[in-house]
Design goal:
Blueprint: H1 10-17, H2 23-29, E1 34-38, E2 41-44, E3 49-52, H3 55-58, H4 67-79, H5 92-104, E4 109-115, H6 118-135, E5 143-147, H7 156-161, H8 165-168, E6 178-181, H9 195-213, E7 218-223, H10 239-250, E8 253-257, H11 271-275, E9 281-284, E10 296-301, H12 302-310, H13 325-340, H14 343-349, H15 351-360, E11 368-374, E12 377-382, H16 398-408, E13 411-412, E14 414-416, E15 419-422, H17 430-451
Parallel strand pairs: 3-13, 5-6, 5-7, 7-8, 8-9
Antiparallel strand pairs: 1-2, 2-3, 4-10, 9-10, 11-12, 12-15, 14-15
Helix pairs in contact: 4-13, 5-13, 9-10, 15-17, 16-17
The structure holds pyridoxal-5'-phosphate.
């Protein structure tokens, strides 16, 4: 498709009016305009077909073009497009979804608080854990401990929970009462410890911080089972059991941010189940609707819910769109689809192992230092020198170079620094997994040529 007279100049209009994160960069380079999608493929305005190795942004888990989700939304919009949950009101889609979430989540979870996004969900977490300790007569327990290079969202509280140095430099973040400890990132360390030693050391930075602050000042620890936006950082096996032990020892609430890992990505309904932790709260968003409409929320364990309800009074917190009927209807249809099509066992036993095996063949590539993947969530590390694991210079922007080559050659992977990450839709076929890895390999060759033109290797 070429632009015609009645086709607006999307790139020009985008540049002039649509403000998003990196506007200066977009000013010069212009955005790629995505116009439609089907299955695991997106299409741009030039009708280039691109395999979506990121499921949109970790969310379109059941793939594009699923009529059932469209029907669920339109049916609900005709019947009751919107109503709120304040003033002693509720409505069937939110109630049905709440009950369904209880069914698919670990046994300690019987209740849910709805929000509109992952960021709002984590804002809710901040307010809820502080409220919990207040009601228990320990209002001093205020501090929430998170990790460097975590991602929990972009609102003021969620960006404070996040451990992104670049975001913290802007706008005086983090807000008071939020501190950060080490992440379990073995490849990013000096690699003098074994992965399990590193995992234990990272977990013990939580214990050190609790001792430093005093346990009677600490409300909760929050972590993503696998850090997503930070670069798909898969913790060593030693990490989560030690975190659980520490939370138990000091009676700290454990919050699992399941915005990416919830609803199947690791081959279990929730990442906490994959790692065997027992969280008190779980925030979710993204995959709950497969991104067809925006919805988030917090699963609340009986430990927390009982206190909020019994000692309660009003929890002065709620959103206009909490439990939005149309988004809840889509979430119900999405979860039923995941159940009916057995997509989660398929990740555990079929497409997960299949893609992992193919993906790990990339580890022998001359500019790849490591490949890693759990379920359908993986990463590879770009290195300049495979023998010494020396990384490319920061000025080379190797990750961005690689990402642009990938997109131009029909595959979406994201660059986090020089870490290339992927999280394809759950409905990926074997042939499409092969296509993903073949395209990645070809693009790694091209990246090598672009960045190391004079070198033989
Ligand atoms: C995306 C993400 C969020 C933020 O969700 P939004 O819907 O963008 O606000 C929070 N936590 C994690 C782990 C995420 O990946």
């Amino acid at each position: 498709m070429t632009s015609t007279e009645d086709q607006p100049d999307w790139k020009e209009l985008d540049k002039n009016h649509y403000l998003f994160t990196d506007h200066k960069d977009l000013h010069t380079k212009r955005a790629r305009i995505i116009t439609r999608a089907d299955g695991v493929y997106i299409y741009d305005d030039q009708d280039n077909q691109i395999l979506d190795g990121m499921s949109g942004l970790w969310c379109v888990n059941v793939g594009y073009g699923r009529e059932e989700l469209v029907d669920a939304a339109s049916k609900q919009m005709r019947k009751l497009p919107y109503y709120n949950s304040f003033f002693q009101c509720s409505h069937p889609p939110a109630i049905e979804l709440a009950a369904l979430l209880q069914e698919v989540s670990p046994p300690q979870f019987n209740r849910v608080f709805f929000a509109g996004s992952g960021s709002e969900s984590n804002d809710t977490v901040v307010r809820m854990v502080r409220r919990y300790w207040d009601l228990r007569g320990m209002p001093e327990r205020q501090t929430i401990i998170s990790r460097h290079n975590a991602y929990h969202g972009s609102t003021v509280a969620a960006a404070s929970l996040s451990g992104m140095a670049a975001a913290h430099k802007q706008g005086g973040l983090p807000i008071p009462g939020i501190v950060h400890v080490d992440q379990p990132y073995w490849f990013g360390s000096d690699r003098t410890l074994t992965p399990n030693e590193l995992g234990l050391a990272a977990a013990r930075s939580l214990e050190d911080k609790i001792k430093e602050l005093g346990a009677d000042k600490v409300a909760a620890f929050i972590g993503e089972p696998i850090q997503g936006a930070g670069g798909v950082i898969i913790p060593p096996d030693s990490y989560w059991p030690e975190i659980q032990r520490i939370c138990d020892t000091y009676d700290i609430l454990l919050v699992s941010d399941e915005v990416i890992t919830g609803f199947g990505r690791l081959g279990e309904w929730f990442g906490a189940e994959y790692y065997g932790t027992r969280p008190d709260l779980m925030s979710f968003a993204k995959g709950v609707t497969s991104g067809y409409l925006p919805l988030g929320g917090v699963m609340v364990s009986d430990r927390v819910a009982d206190v909020l309800i019994d000692k309660g009074g009003e929890f002065a917190h709620g959103y206009t769109y909490s439990g939005h009927p149309s988004t809840c209807a889509v979430a119900i249809a999405n979860i039923r689809m995941i159940q009916r099509e057995n997509l989660i066992p398929r990740i555990k036993n079929d497409i997960g192992p299949y893609l992992q095996k193919a993906f790990h063949t990339l580890a022998d590539h001359p500019i790849v230092g490591e490949t890693r993947m759990v379920g359908l969530m993986g990463a590879l590390e770009l290195v300049k020198n495979k023998d010494t694991m020396q990384r490319f210079g920061e000025d080379q922007g190797a990750g961005t170079v690689c990402r642009d080559i990938l997109t131009n050659n029909g595959l979406v992977m994201r660059a986090v620094g020089d870490t290339m990450i992927t999280a394809p839709p759950f409905v990926l076929r074997h042939s499409q997994a092969d296509e993903l890895v073949e395209k990645a390999r070809r693009c790694l060759d091209l990246t090598q040529k672009a960045l190391l033109p004079a070198r033989g290797r």
